[in-house]
Amino acid sequence: METTDFEQKKSLWNSLRSFSPAQRQTLPRLLTKRDRVLLLIFCATFITSFGYALYSLTNQYSVPVPARGGSLREGIIGIPRFINPLLASSDADRDLTALVYTGLLRNNGKGELAPSLADRYEISNDALTYTFYLKDNLRWSDGTLLTADDVIFTISLVKDPSYRSVLRPNWEGVTAEKKDDKTIEFKLAKPYAPFLENATIGILPEHLWRDVLAAEFTLSEKNLQPVGAGPYRVVSFEQNSTGRISSYMLEPNPQYVPYPPHIKTLEFVFFTSAAELQTAYQNGFVDSASIPGILTIPSSEESLTLSLPLPRIFGVFFNKNVSKALADDAVREALAYGTNRAQLLESVLQNQGVPVSTPLPQKTSTSSLFFDANASAEILTRGGWIDSNADGTREKEIDKEKVPLSFTISTSDAPDLAATARLLQEMWRAVGADVRLSIFEIGDFEQDILRPRKYEAILFGEIFGFDPDPFAFWHSSQRNDPGLNIALYTNPRVDTLLEQTRAQTNRMEREKTYQEFQNIVNKEYPAIFLYSPYYHYKLASAIQGYAITQITNPSDRFGSVHEWYIKTKNKWAY
Description:
By secondary structure, the protein is α+β, with helices and mostly antiparallel strands. It folds into three domains: 61 residues, no CATH class; 248 residues, Periplasmic binding protein-like II (D-Maltodextrin-Binding Protein, domain 2); 222 residues, Roll (Dipeptide-binding Protein, domain 3), CATH 3.10.105. Helix content is 31%, strand content 24%. A hairpin with a 2-residue loop joins strand 16 and strand 17. Helix 9 runs antiparallel to helix 11. The protein is elongated and about 120 Å long.
């Protein structure tokens, strides 16, 4: 009876197992051609079967998890000047600062304050003492240990007026004390309800900044070559032929806690206009884009758009000290009635926002002012403002001087602000005001116009936190730079209310105080509030692990950037 192929293979395999290593080396010379072919087929079949079984087992008992790798190139309108948590004033500054630095707490992008450098914190029963405990073995991106001394040092600079930090008002009446290398105690003169949000301020490394004098603080190269404890660190930046920064390259900070980010490189490319950013995005030059309200970029399969409300109020703030016309109550009230917010919202923001007519964001705002051009004209006429020579501009005699209803609105060249200014110019000219425009590059605007208060009227925005605190914008102590009271507003009762509301930990009591504050401001028209825009973030669809639902600043989108990922790997499930 003839043996089958299977029996032959089995016999061959058993024979092979009994051979010594030396015999196996000589085996190929002993096998026939047919036997060698059978052996190769057997080995190939075995390897294929084993690989398929291993693959099936891996798919069945493993799960994909984030892996390090991938890159993201993002486009931003604006040019960074201060990658420094004490000085950052533009969105470009704040974006990079949020990536390079971190605070005791961080905004996680979901409307929550999450631990960052702090492991935990405690609040005393009287809400006057906040104690923070640092995590173990914290280090700066250069490897130097981060201790309570760095926290104390940072807060001392914020509180020192010579360093001109825009955050100084939030730290007035607060003392910081080091209890040990990992413990910091903040003592408040009186309760301050939003204090925990103060703890998100990025901490500066004392060993790099302690020898920088106050006069040199804004000029230091460390503002463009920062070292922080945030999720990413700066690798390099590029400048164009004119010296303007065109891009920044970042990589994961290996010292970041709880773990370094997954995405291997982040590159930020800076554009001077919305049109430039739009073209770059549509041509695939950038993967994602931080988009102002007026810019619309078509969606694609390679991206998704997050549209989020921001607690920002844009408006025109009047400097009554330099304009006799704007010092007249009737003029400011008439301009308020002559402002068509619905038209601004539609024409400038393509309805990507909400109209605002009060000094607080929408969730705490309760009153509104409707557009009425006839009422505006009547208010001016009753106030003595008449167009006597039919040239389209009203005049009034003030202190025996004929004063025209004429003033200049100053603003930056941000597309939405420039478009808003032009529409306001048309609206207010229609009721008899001669309105001129002065539009500046953002850096020149801040340094030459905003900070020295050299304007008659200024079109600008106010940024609030999760728990709105209008102190910095409306308290009389904040009229001079670096204070943010750009209307140079003074009212003793409002000062009292703003001080009072900071100490009210009961939300209902605070809302009641806010309402009285708003009623007073609304009656005096120190500014005309316009709208609060939505924020749009075009994110590449390759990005996974993000959870961005509620932010106060566009930079808050990076609150959990260490959890984002592009690449994955399989891990055995237990």
